[in-house]
Predict the 3D structure of the following.
Amino acid sequence: MVCPCGCRTVLHLNLIADQRPCWYLNRQGGGSLTPSVWRRDNCGAHFWFRGGRVYWTPDQPHTLMRDLRLWRG
């Protein structure tokens, strides 16, 4: 997936359960990822992906601008 902050970095998330770190993808209802995605370097984006939508964690500054960049593409 492309990072939703607007930095356009391609994120590779491991879905293989016996390797760490690992995310679980639930495809129902638009798709959800567990746990949250946290880029500790570069842009520092930290978000949940639930029901096909991005939800920023409370520790994220300027989430409105990030949402506008995501909406504009």
